[in-house]
Amino acid sequence: MGWMSDETGLNKRAANYVPLTPLSALNRAAKIFPDKLAVAHGTHRKSYGEYHARCTQLASALASMGVKPGEVVATILPNIPAAAEAHFGVPACGAVLNAINTRLDVATVAYIFDHGEAKVVLVDSEFLSLAEAACAEMEGPEPQIIEVAAPDHGHPASGRHPEYEATLASADTAFDWIMPEDEWESLALNYTSGTTGKPKGVVYHHRGAYLNAMGQVLSWRMVLHPVYLTIVPLFHCNGWCHTWMMPMVGGTLVCCRDITAQNIFDAIADEGVTHFGGAPIVLNMLVNSPEEDRRVFDHTVEVFTAGAPPAPATLAKIEPMGFHITQVYGLTEVYGPATECLWDHDRWGDLEGHHRAEIKARQGVEMPFIDDVAVMDADMNQTTMDGETIGEIMIKGNAVMKGYFKNPEATEEAFAGGYFHSGDIAVQHGDSYVQITDRAKDIIISGGENISSVEVEGVLMHHPAVSLAAVVAKPDEKWGEVPCAFVELLDGAEATEAEVIAFARSQLAGFKTPKKVVFQELPKTSTGKIQKFELRNLARDI
């Protein structure tokens, strides 16, 4: 018999096994940090004791409205305290949180209401007309609207629906939280912003959210009491799980309703912000901000950036401004970040400028809560780790979604072969660091040659007049496809199409050089991603 072969009586029981859930983090914080500032938004400043009480009242109110465990409660909210409270208050009554993108169109919101079968929706007054119009278009029962008034931001209560603060005030602060009996229970429902067809509903469980939040503390090298600025929308992968993370370290959540360079600099200077996450476009906004929008601060701000590979030119400019950038990578299906460009000081400590930025632009290695990240070929074999052989990023681990809601076929397809198929095309370096070359749909195939739009964009971003660049395929009779660049210039800067093409040609092979350059503002999603599908439509008609 082997060692420990007889495990009679060594069972899971109440004393030694508790389902993992991010709800436990706020329960603990309310007990050990009751007077510590938990949430700040202008004059709204709540301690952990008050934050917990408000989340409890929300849970109580939802339960009294008939919301049952396992049912869906939606939100249409910007990054405000109510959005943070919903991340705890909704699951505290056993419900599943569905945070909806505030920039979606009426038909899509109506579809999400119907598909998710939301019983209640918390709606900021700014987006009330969107919610009401979506309800009117629904096929099934409409959710009860609770209006979250924003009078300080020019959006007073309409009077047409129960108001959030009044709803909380009438609820029970002694409501007993409904904790999950099984950590696999659903916690959140997030709809992917699909560019074709209906959005898919990604389901998170309590275990994954807890491990993701806890693991990012390690990846971000966090100590107690950070001050975190909510730039990533809480409707985007639940703000990368950062709102669930803050109570774990007794941190302060600073809400940023409107994402502007001035608001970010003000928060850093006035609130002492130490951490935030955001797409590369946010870094670009800070780098190109006018002097009058900037504030002096004397500490280094830790930044997670993701959503698209950041241009080395942007990274080279922002770090000297007082920001330490860590490139992370993930998708809605993996709760937000899943890999990090873990910095190796022994190998890269002496790198500066462009060389340093090129390494920082890698997506990196798996975070602590991910079992494996690999780049595989079409037969799901590991590609050669030479930094050149392309394949698809595959992910396996505890922070991968349960699956797509009411869509078993798409779930099976996404999980074929025992890994989650990301749809992102990448190379893997000899040290296992992953580097994205493109989304599968963004690869440009010109005369049989694969062109990475990311590579061409990286070159264009070095042009002194360029603020943002996006490159897509333009149909071509001879080559099948050729690169077409859409360029947003810096304020006051000038450049011609010929100049930009010549600049690119000086650094790229001829077939990779854009054959057409269009100067315009680039269409973006609410999280700052450039909407390439719109640009592809434009390129077809040029």
Automatic annotation (TrEMBL):
EC number, as in UniProt: 6.2.1.44
Domain AMP-binding enzyme C-terminal, first and last residues per copy: 455-529
Record key words, sorted: Fatty acid metabolism, Ligase, Lipid metabolism, Magnesium, Metal-binding
Gene3D superfamilies: 3.30.300.30, N-terminal domain of ligase-like (3.40.50.12780)
GO BP annotations listed: fatty acid metabolic process
InterPro entries per UniProt: AMP-bd_C, AMP-bd_C_sf, AMP-binding_CS, AMP-dep_synth/lig_dom, ANL_N_sf
Domain AMP-dependent synthetase/ligase: start-end pairs: 27-405
Entry keyword Magnesium: yes
Signal peptide stretch: none
Reactions this protein catalyses: 3-(methylsulfanyl)propanoate + ATP + CoA = 3-(methylsulfanyl)propanoyl-CoA + AMP + diphosphate
Domain of life of the source: Bacteria
UniProt key word S-adenosyl-L-methionine: no
Cofactors (names): Mg(2+)
Catalytic EC class: ligase
GO function terms (MF aspect): ligase activity; metal ion binding
Subunit structure: Homodimer.
Family statement: Belongs to the ATP-dependent AMP-binding enzyme family.
NCBIfam families, sorted: PRK08162.1 (NF006020)
Protein known as: 3-methylmercaptopropionyl-CoA ligase
Organism: Shimia haliotis
